[in-house]
Amino acid sequence: MSTSIQRYHIGPRLAEIVVHNNTVYLAGQIAESLDKDTRGQTEEVLASIDRLLNEVGSDRQKLLSVTIYLADMNDYDAMNEVWSAWVIKCHTPARATVEARLADPRYRVEMVVTAAL
């Protein structure tokens, strides 16, 4: 029995979305507006997550796991303020937040998401 794998927005290094066995995997999501502060970048990242999940028939209510990478852990409260307004009460995912040196020093936040279809 073979299981199908669907890939969306395929680039030379990654696919933005991979769906397998009714599970959605999103590549690390970053903001496009790198001049924004952590709050602004977090809002953009969460909007991107909404858009990508909706594209494949999922949504934030079906989040399973989110890993959040912050360039500076001092931005934790600012990120969490935006996150808390966005995440659906009683549908919160398993989550980890870590400080990491991100690929571009202008990135303030990156999120990696796993969700159900």
TrEMBL record:
The name this protein goes by in its record: RidA family protein
CDD domains: YjgF_YER057c_UK114_like_2 (cd06150)
Domain of life: Bacteria
PANTHER family given in the database record: PTHR47328, RUTC FAMILY PROTEIN YOAB
Species of provenance: Chitiniphilus purpureus
Family in the record: Belongs to the RutC family.
